[in-house]
Design goal:
The protein is an alpha+beta fold. Helix content is about 25%, strand content about 30%. It contains four helices and eleven strands; from the N terminus they run H-E-E-E-E-E-H-E-E-H-E-E-E-E-H. The strands form two sheets. Strands 2, 4, 5, 6, 7 and 8 form a six-stranded mixed beta sheet that branches. The longest helix is centred in the middle third of the chain and has 21 residues, at about 70-90. The protein is globular and about 45 Å long. It starts with a helix and ends with a helix. Mean pLDDT is about 90; it is low at about 180-185.
Length: about 200
């Protein structure tokens, strides 16, 4: 079985890995080949902010590790993690506000044909709307523990190459930063901060 794109990047020393409940920023330097990626998505949510210059990637579990299985704990967890995304965005705003602007991606779980974490997905969508940023939603299917898995299952990889930056979910092309149709972001971090407190 052929390795996944993420496995290849790791093997070549070209991967910056985002583990569960981490958020990381990467600026794409000229001619650099370092990719930003995550793995083991299987009920978690991944959030990307992408421009031709840089990317932010977060990988969020449905609820904090120490919490009981309840919706309120999960929703509070996502709000806190999106706060970390907003902080990185404000710290590196110059990399995301330049034309042609930035785009967002959310990779979300579908279990037995139903969106698994609907309230969390709705909160993420509201945050991107507050940032005035186009959002592309990509579903992936949750597997049972004993289901067979392809190497690319549960992976998301952001790949700079030849003057463009491509995003792949489970090795399927999603979007490219070059020539993105999103508008120049009117990124209002203050507005989104107010929205997140509600």
């Amino acid at each position: 079985m052929a390795p996944s794109m993420l496995q290849n990047a790791r093997g070549q020393g070209e991967l910056r890995l985002v583990s569960m409940n981490e958020v990381k920023y990467l600026r794409f330097e000229p001619k650099a080949k370092i990719c930003l990626g995550t793995e083991n998505l299987n009920s978690c949510t991944a959030v990307v902010i992408l421009s031709k210059n840089a990317a932010i990637l977060g990988h969020f579990s449905p609820r904090p590790p120490s919490a009981n299985a309840n919706t309120a704990a999960g929703d509070a967890h996502i709000k806190a993690k999106m706060g970390e995304v907003r902080t990185l965005l404000s710290q590196h705003l110059q990399d995301f506000a330049q034309k042609p602007g930035s785009t967002g991606i959310v990779a979300y779980a579908v279990y037995m044909g139903v969106t698994a974490l609907q309230s969390q997905k709705a909160y993420i969508e509201a945050q991107f709307a507050a940032w005035k940023m186009q959002l592309k939603s990509i579903p992936y299917h949750v597997l049972e523990a004993d289901d067979p898995r392809e190497p690319a299952k549960g992976t998301l990889l952001i790949v700079p190459k030849d003057g463009r930056v491509d995003v792949y979910v489970e090795d399927k092309f999603v979007v490219s930063a070059k020539g993105t149709a999103s508008s120049s972001t009117g990124l209002s971090v203050a507005e989104s901060s107010k929205a997140s407190s509600k």
